[in-house]
């Protein structure tokens, strides 16, 4: 029963992150804020969006994002404001440009290299020469040893 309660609490935790006092009265702005906050990473929780996180900094970021939207910023301007302030780390899905381009390419390149190394290794093992057959003299000697 405790496990069931724990699982239900874990499932409900992301739903409780946005507090009622943070919600904007304008439904369209609130939808924009929710959509944007799903793509922003909590600096404390790692790999959790600020929309899902209960950390204090996430609350501050949600409020700041909503303030920027109310002030008239476009979606890109509001996100860029937070990126300028906290760095690209805050983006759950960083842009594929500059230094990030190398990071995006690293995984497929490593996978390709590992596959190549595995193929060469397997091919090398299949070409390995097995032991040579025994000569008649060696076979007779082994037979003699086995009979003794």
TrEMBL record:
Pfam family for this entry, one: CcmH
Signal peptide: 1-18
GO MF entry, a single one: metal ion binding
Residues spanning the membrane: 101-122
Domain annotation CcmH/CycL/Ccl2/NrfF N-terminal: ranges: 7-146
Gene3D superfamilies: Cytochrome C biogenesis protein
Alphabetized InterPro entries for the sequence: C-type_cytochrome_biogenesis, CcmH/CycL/Ccl2/NrfF_N, CcmH/CycL/NrfF/Ccl2_sf
Keyword terms of this UniProt record: Heme, Iron, Membrane, Metal-binding, Signal, Transmembrane, Transmembrane helix
One cellular component (GO) term of this entry: plasma membrane
Tagged with keyword Disulfide bond: no
Domain of life (superkingdom): Bacteria
Function: Possible subunit of a heme lyase.
Protein family per UniProt: Belongs to the CcmH/CycL/Ccl2/NrfF family.
Name of the protein in question: Cytochrome c-type biogenesis protein
Source organism per UniProt: Octadecabacter ascidiaceicola
Gene name tied to this protein: ccmH
